Amino acid sequence: MVPLWWYILLAVVLFVIGAAGVLLRRNILVVLMSLELLLNSVNINFIAFGRQYDDFRGQIFAIFVIAITAAEVAVALGILVALVRNKSTLKVDDVTMMKG
């Protein structure tokens, strides 16, 4: 049986990698993949603590997070396709089109 702290350590490593990707990278696709890493680290924590306390609510929350992530990816890819058609770039610094 794997101890709980291994799951927490894995989630922390994934969260740090995802946060560094969001803060340091300039490509929109890399930023979106880093956000996915952040959400997956949260899912690992939900499932690990749910398993530790014999509660299914952690798995239920993880399923909801996965569903919301799938919707976010669909919307983001649609926006990216429109952006590439108009600007021909995926760099965060070059995209000022969506400012209000």
TrEMBL record:
Its EC number is 7.1.1.-. Keywords: Cell membrane, Membrane, NAD, Quinone, Translocase, Transmembrane, Transmembrane helix, Transport, Ubiquinone. GO terms for biological process: ATP synthesis coupled electron transport. InterPro entries: NADH_UbQ_OxRdtase_chain4L/K (IPR001133), NUOK/Mnh_C1-like (IPR039428). GO terms for cellular component: NADH dehydrogenase complex; plasma membrane. It is found in: Cell membrane; Membrane. It comes from the Bacteria. GO terms for molecular function: NADH dehydrogenase (quinone) (non-electrogenic) activity; quinone binding. It is a multi-pass membrane protein. Pfam families: Oxidored_q2. It catalyses: a quinone + NADH + 5 H(+)(in) = a quinol + NAD(+) + 4 H(+)(out). The chain crosses the membrane at residues 6-24, 29-48, 60-84. Belongs to the complex I subunit 4L family. NDH-1 is composed of 14 different subunits. Subunits NuoA, H, J, K, L, M, N constitute the membrane sector of the complex. PANTHER family: NADH-UBIQUINONE OXIDOREDUCTASE CHAIN 4L (PTHR11434:SF16), NADH-UBIQUINONE OXIDOREDUCTASE SUBUNIT ND4L (PTHR11434). NDH-1 shuttles electrons from NADH, via FMN and iron-sulfur (Fe-S) centers, to quinones in the respiratory chain. The immediate electron acceptor for the enzyme in this species is believed to be ubiquinone. Couples the redox reaction to proton translocation (for every two electrons transferred, four hydrogen ions are translocated across the cytoplasmic membrane), and thus conserves the redox energy in a proton gradient. This is NADH-quinone oxidoreductase subunit K. It comes from Rhizobium paranaense.
